[in-house]
Design brief:
The structure is a single chain. The protein has helices at 3-7, 14-28, 34-45, 50-59, 67-70, 73-80, 96-117, 124-134, 139-154, 159-184, 187-219, 222-235, 246-253, 261-273, 293-301, 344-359, 401-405; strands at 284-285, 290-291, 306-311, 316-319, 364-371, 374-384, 390-399. The protein is α+β, with helices and mostly antiparallel strands and 433 residues long. It has two domains: 1-251, nmb1532 protein domain like (Four Helix Bundle (Hemerythrin (Met), subunit A), Up-down Bundle); 277-405, PAS domain (Beta-Lactamase). Strand 6 (374-384) and strand 7 form a beta hairpin. It is globular, with a radius of gyration of 26 Å.
């Protein structure tokens, strides 16, 4: 039994949960009719909340990667209609969950257009803008996976990470495939894929709005939602024009640290007494030099590569906050199990990489992704201390598209926006003694 999730829910009657599960299982397997099921819900359950269904899924049913895809949400809605409130929670306009609903509203409108157009012969020009617009939506999934799922995991509700993520990726891939088939001129396959997209896209939104979002509102505090905003802004939105300086937002929504100030001051004084620097402007020994904490953060922020560090316990400890990030990251990833940062279909690869690096069988693992006008290089390196003990994995990622396009040599200075003749190159640095 998952007691952790229960701690973050307003109320959970276990006998009632067992009754709900019993009725639902017999209904979906055809052992009782809809009418019989609803009669039992009225008699044995009465009213229920969306988070009750989430709790049952998390704690009382077996987990399979594709269960979110297979589950018939329409059946569940019919069974519990009138006993469970399906209305949207009343939330502020700038609430993170509000933005998820707004994106869904726009996708629903677009899918209505798809449903109408598939009745007629395919005329490519009628579809181009619509399909491009639909393919803006997957940032919605990135935000869920990097922002909402980690907070729910911390509270004992990891079913979205382990099952809904698979459904997210499936619908995202359907969106991409419609664009590919439209470009290829394969009209029959394109129409068939569009019909699948309408069905599964709506089904996933139903599951989000019936279970995920109401449960999130029940489990996540307003303070935590406020802190979530900065990461949401970093990753971005589909269809919504929300212009926010994410670094300013991060500072405004950071968790208050007042209760620890006294302890922090005492600790700083103690460390200083024994020669350890603690202030933001104090110089820190970094093996090959001395830098302030501010300088270290600025260096990380301006690196031409993205770095992430996973410690020996397989927890994400750090990532560089660069403006050119290849894949989205947000502060909610810190402290997250690295296996939960990847879709289920690639989890076995992540596991193998960590195991090989941990054991010393390998010291690095390389990957690269090549697409039209894009080349991404990814390197995983085992981090070991001076005694050879495994301390974690450093991930380095870079968009190398421009680098691969370079030819010949450039030894003269020429700025990227300069049209004239380049200046002479600087002198080579003096050789080390």
């Amino acid at each position: 039994m998952n007691d952790k999730m229960k701690q973050f829910l307003p109320s959970v009657d276990l006998e009632k949960m067992k009754a709900i599960l019993d009725i639902e299982e017999r209904f979906v397997t055809g052992k009782i009719t809809l009418e019989q099921g609803r009669e039992e819900v009225a008699r044995r359950v009465g009213s229920l909340r969306p988070y009750h269904l989430a709790f049952i899924e998390q704690t009382m049913t077996e987990h399979t990667d594709d269960e979110c895809i297979r589950e018939n949400m329409a059946q569940k809605i019919k069974l519990f209609e009138g006993f469970m409130d399906y209305s949207r929670p009343q939330l502020p306009a700038d609430h993170p969950i509000t933005h998820y609903y707004e994106e869904n509203d726009e996708l629903k409108r677009l899918l209505l257009q798809v449903e109408d157009l598939v009745q007629y012969p395919v005329i490519k020009n009628q579809w181009i803008d619509l399909i491009e617009r639909i393919n803006e939506y997957p940032v919605h999934y990135k935000r869920k996976q990097n922002q909402l799922y980690p907070v729910l995991e911390q509270k004992g509700f990891d079913r979205p990470t382990t099952t809904m993520w698979t459904f997210d990726d499936m619908v995202r891939d359907l969106m991409r495939e419609t664009r590919r088939l439209l470009d290829a001129g394969d009209d029959d396959a394109f129409v068939a894929e569009c019909q699948k997209l309408v069905y599964y896209g709506r089904d996933l939104m139903d599951k989000e709005e019936t279970i995920l979002y109401p449960t999130s509102c029940a489990m996540i505090s307003e303070e935590e939602f406020a802190q979530m905003k900065a990461g949401d802004h970093e990753i971005g939105y589909a269809y919504l024009n929300i212009a926010v300086d994410h670094r300013k937002a991060a500072a405004e929504t950071a968790a208050p640290a007042a209760p620890a100030e006294g302890f922090a001051a005492d600790l700083a004084q103690l460390l200083s007494k024994y020669g350890y620097s603690t202030g933001a402007n104090e110089k820190l020994d970094v093996t090959t030099g001395k830098l302030t904490l501010e300088q270290i953060n600025l260096i990380y922020r301006h690196m031409p590569v993205d770095l992430s560090f996973v410690d020996e316990n397989e927890l994400v400890c750090f990532y560089t906050d660069t403006d050119h990030r290849v894949f989205p990251r947000s502060r909610n990833v810190i402290g997250r199990e690295v296996m939960n940062c990847h879709p289920r279909k690639s989890a076995h690869v992540v596991k193998e990489v960590i195991e090989k690096l941990r054991s010393g069988e390998q010291d690095k693992a390389e990957f690269w992704i090549e697409k039209p006008d894009l080349f991404i290089y990814i390197l995983y390196v085992a981090v070991r201390d001076e005694n050879g003990r495994f301390r974690g994995v450093l991930e380095m990622m870079q968009d190398c598209t421009h680098i691969r396009s370079l030819k010949g040599s450039r030894t003269l200075l020429k700025w990227a926006d300069e049209a004239g003749v380049p200046a002479e190159s600087p002198s080579a640095p003096a050789a080390s003694p």
